[in-house]
Amino acid sequence: MKSVASPSSQIWVLLGLGLAGIYVLTRKLTQAAKQDFGAFILKLNLLPPPPPAPPKAPHPLSSLNFAISDIFDLEGYVSTFGHPEWERTHEPASSTSPVVSALVESGATCVGTTVVDDFAYGISGENKHFGTPTNPAVPNRVPGGSSSGAAVAVAANFVDFSLGVDTSGGVRVPAGFCGILGFRPSQGAVSHVGIIPVSTSLDTVGWFAKDPDVLRRVGHILLQAPFVMQRNPRQIIIADDCFQHLNVPLDRTSQVLIKTTEKLFGKQVLKHINLEDYISSKVPSLKACSIQKSNGVLKSSSLKLLANIMQFLQRHEFEQTHNEWMSIVKPDLHPAVSAQLNEKFEVSDVEIENSKSVRSELRIAVNSLLKDEGILVIPTVADPPPKLGGKEILSQDYQSRALSLLSIASISGCCQVTIPLGLYDKNPVSVSLIARHGGDRFLLDTLKTMYTVLQEQVDIAAPSKSSKSVVSKEQSAEIAKEKGNQAYKDKQWQKAIGFYTEAIKLCGHNATYYSNRAQAYLELGSYLQAEEDCTKAISFDKKNVKAYFRRGTAREMLGYYKEAIDDFKYALVLEPTNKRAASAAERLRKLFQ
What we know:
Shape: globular
Strand content: 5-15%
């Protein structure tokens, strides 16, 4: 360790050559206006390598930008780990985390590091040292933690995706509280090298996005999973007991999943389960974790016992790694973190071994329940986000209700994705899908398949604020188009496609709807579909400049360069001042002279 002064007065710091370009860091000033919702610790540009020349395909994450929780190593920089004392007493990293490097090499630009709870330990997202990031969905409530800044950066549209660390909910909770997608991969699926450990056996690198396709594309890079044909789920299992004690009506949570499943896969895929009973019967080692029994029956529920084990492991492993530093430095902690780390704590070998047995048995139980093509549906969290500065999140009851649900994936090591389901009583609502350990790619594929219909069902379930008067198909199509335009502005490409498709179903001879959907397809790299939609648009409107330009772009990416040049030239005939078409036509003409 090294004692170094924090350069708070330093605004711009040139660190030199990075992985694929020069990156410049901006120090976040405490008194600075929170134009970034307080999400960022540092602003930077870690640039990707130049794109390959045609006809080679572009980098898979080309044009996307991202942020990282301030727990990942960046060469030449000291991560704060959520606390200024950590930054003051540690040396700069000698290399960049391989996870961050992989994303940059795949074409994404890293634009900043973001706030986490003290030592990435809590689930509130509050940080008194760097400031609590503002939740864009509900500004008077906590953003959720530990990866609060990373979630806020996505929710506020500052970045396309972001990285966090999920130990006991560090990605899933802020995703649920901020109303965005959050993915916790299977334990061990993504490298932990170059990341400050919280709890070595529970930590996973997770990521956030608004668009399910972006979430999936990032997953393909980080998981490095072999390609497999996309499969539909054979079973979608609703954990009915987990939904019974929520403050949100079932028609806004589990029923949305049920109706989506019936529409996409049929009723035969649905199954219902009492998850607590299942876990009690399949994880016998839990019995040793409860001292209080009545006639041999556990008084504590199986999920609460799992939560206790998760907290035990997190505390034990954190102390194993950081206890010496904590004892020397004695850092000032947020009350929520202090309540856990400063509580009297004793560990026995028997407890450690029993915890390992529970983990092994639970993974086997969940894998047996879900097999290769099953999905378990649970609430992400039991309660809405607590108010900022309140004591609710400090209560044992709140923590127990939240951690009971979060412990299922943390202890079993299975993968989980948090999915937003709109608002209820002005607070974000979400559910989570869990797949077996190692089923990460299947889970991301399933999310992509279900997402558009899920959001349609959310809109149906939510009470309409619009007039109840009957509207024509043309009016309904325009409403769907406008929703698509807004989703496109929010960079939710898949959702935009869903709305444009709805508009086309209602009014199938409108060139604009096809042309707009083509643009969303281009963003996803679906060039064949984009070309088809543009051709359809042109068949309805021979003077649609955007359709010609977008078809030219699609054809260029597909390698049809002569046809692309023709489309760009025709766009110029219709609109001689179109600089983008002129530039594209000239670029291709020079390339193939």
